[in-house]
Structure formats: C-alpha cells, structure tokens
Specification:
Elements lengths: L1 E4 L4 H13 L4 E5 L19 E5 L5 H11 L3 E4 L6 H6 L1 H24 L3 H6 L1 E7 L24 H20 L3 E6 L1 E3 L8 H10 L4 E4 L5 E6 H14 L5 E4 L4 E3 H15 L12 E4 L14 H7 L7 H14 L1 H7 L2 H10 L4
Parallel strand pairs: 1-2, 1-4, 2-3, 4-5, 5-6, 6-10, 7-9, 8-12
Antiparallel strand pairs: 9-11
Length: about 350
C-alpha cells in the first residue's frame, strides 16, 4: 500500500481516484481537510475497501509515525501544501508552517520508519515530493523552458516555501540516504479544482454573470497540464524514477492568461450559452496585477520523456473541453465549495480600480 498526503485536495484527490481505479493497491490518505481539502472530491470512495481517510496534520509526528508503523507503506506521496500565490502574499505564515515546517516533520517521521525497515524494503521504498515550476522564478519571453538544472529563484512566499521544501527533501536523500523523488509540474487544470485558481474561477463567475477577472494586461504565460496527465506521470516516476532525481512534468501547452480566458468563454458560449445570447467574453474585467507577478513559466519535460517514456495524453483543446464540461455537469460540487469565506476572499482579491 501507499500513503498519500493531501489526498482530498485538487491534485491529490485526482491521484487517489486514478490510483484506486487502475490497480489493486490500497491508499492511506492523510489530509488536514482545510478549505482546499474537500471530502466531496472523494465521495465516490465512500465505503471503498482500499481507501482509508485519516484527518490530520503532516506536521504531527505523534500521528504520522504510528500511521506509518501500522500500515507499512512502500511509498509516501507528498501532495499536502498551501498552494495559492495570492493567499501567500496576504498570509505567508501558513505557507512557512505547512510547506517548510510540515515537510520537515513529515520527512523525520518517514526517515524513522524507513530506517527500521529491512534492507530490501529500504531499497524498494520511495518518498515522492510533488513540487511546482514556480520555484524556478520567471522566464523572459524568448528564454528556453525550465529544465531540471535551472536555478531555483522563487519570487513569491508560496514558491519560496516550496523551494525550501525541495531543499529539505534533497538534503534528506543526500544526508540520510532516504530514497526520494521530486517533481516540478506546470499549472494543472481539471476536475475538482478549487475556484480560487484561474480556470475554475472563470467558469464559476461566467455562469453566475459576474466579472471575469484578468490580472494586469493578461499576457502572463503559463504551461498548462491536465491533472490526469500529471497523475499518470507521477505513477510512472514512482514506478521507474531513480532515487535522488528530480523530474519536470509539463503539458507542452504555453498559453497567455488572456488566451485561457477567451478559450473558456468560447466553450461556454457553445456548451451553455447566455440567456441573452451575448458572449461570455463581455464579462472580462482587467484588475490590478498582483505584486511580483511572474511573467512566464515553461516546462521542458524532455528528461521524463527520454528516461521514462512519459508523454501527456491530452492536448489543451481536449483537456479544457473536458474540464468545462465537468464543471457544467457538477453544479452541486461547485455550489458547496463556494462558502462565505470563499466569497469574501474573491471580493478582497479580485478588486478593480
């Protein structure tokens, strides 16, 4: 069996669902169930014999160590993180606590468990740390995409906290021999994405007749990765990746934010036209850019393709259509995640001048 941290969040939940659907190995799912950890993401697993959900903090060694000892996982996949740049700007303390201190305590609990294993089980064990391309900082328009050798130059409290956790994972491998793997992925999108992020926010606001907020000129560039492709890459890396290595995971889909907005609007025009027949693009509103907004991210996933043979299955066109359709098909999920606290956050964050 494996242990997954943060498995009720967006990427973690998609991974757990795909893992259980594609194999017979059990999952212990450790999640603190903060605002982004949503039990409805795992509703289809109610009563599932190979899924155990444990509510708890990765930083609580008194919880994690006995959990490891009891269930004896062959791998730990570490998704749990505070992960929103805007929230990190307004409240960096939570990001330091979860992403750095929490990862430290998790690593120590895992190290104690791993050191007590037999030599054969030690050699087979893996700790897979899921990180982000944002640790690499910003790219110029004509610069080559991020490779695994790119300098770590984070520009936000979020990316700095993730970079710090990357360094801890690297150090625990080199100092203690813990068999670690680290991944840096580009922007994910797909089902169960909490609507503080761009694509689900656009869908939710468009359907509600609200403004579609675009930071600054909207020409910031990101590489977009369908979440199920990300999950398949992680399974591949867990199976065949070399301990101590890092792997970039990208979707080969560089798009400006404005391109994303217009694509989502065009799909909604097709799949759920407005009652007044006006285009959803009429709701686009430019808002104040966020401080230190990185201009471009781009992932070179060539190492993953060469060494392990992985390629994304979805193009952006196929992935974004599936994503928009999923939100149209799941109005109850969308309604339930939009709490009063979420509404207050959106009103505070996406103001127009």
């Amino acid at each position: 069996m494996i242990l997954v941290t943060g498995g009720a969040g967006f990427i973690g939940a998609n991974f757990v669902l795909d893992w259980l659907a594609q194999g017979d190995e059990a999952v212990v799912n450790l999640d603190l169930l903060t605002y982004a950890g949503n039990l409805e993401n795992l509703q289809s697993l109610d009563g599932h014999p190979r899924h155990l959900l444990v509510q708890g903090d990765i930083g609580n060694r008194e919880l994690v160590a006995p959990l490891l000892a009891q269930h004896q996982p062959r791998a730990v996949l570490h998704f749990a993180a505070e992960s929103h740049v805007d929230r990190s700007i307004h409240g960096p303390g939570d990001f330091i606590q979860t992403n750095i201190v929490g990862t430290f305590h998790l690593l120590e609990a895992v190290r104690g468990y791993w050191q007590a294993l037999s030599p054969a089980r030690q050699a087979a064990f893996r700790f897979l740390h899921v990180s982000t391309d944002e640790v690499f900082g910003s790219l110029d328009a004509e610069a080559s995409a991020f490779t695994e050798q790119h300098p770590i130059v984070p520009n936000s409290p979020y990316s700095a906290s993730k970079a710090a956790s990357d360094h801890l994972v690297r150090a625990w491998h080199h100092t203690y021999g813990l068999p670690t793997l680290t991944t840096h992925c580009s922007n994910n999108y797909g089902p169960f994405h909490f609507p503080e992020k761009l694509i689900p926010l656009l869908i939710v606001n468009a359907l509600a007749g609200k403004p579609l907020p675009v930071y600054g000129d909207g020409l910031q560039v990101r590489d977009w990765l369908y979440v199920k492709d990300h999950c398949s890459a992680l399974r591949c890396i867990l199976q065949a990746g070399s301990p101590g290595q890092t792997y970039n995971i990208g979707g080969n889909n560089e798009k400006t934010n404005l391109e994303i907005v217009h694509t989502v609007c065009a799909l909604l025009d097709l799949l759920r036209p407005r009652a007044d027949a006006r285009p959803y693009s009429s709701q686009i509103t430019h808002v104040t850019d966020r401080p230190g907004h990185d201009r471009r991210y781009a992932i070179d996933a060539g190492k993953l393709a060469r060494d392990l043979g992985w390629q994304p299955a979805e193009t952006f066109d196929t992935g974004i259509r599936q994503t928009v359709q999923w939100y149209l098909d799941h109005p109850d999920w969308v309604a339930h995640v939009q709490s009063g606290a979420y509404r207050d956050w959106v009103q505070k964050q996406y103001r127009s001048d």
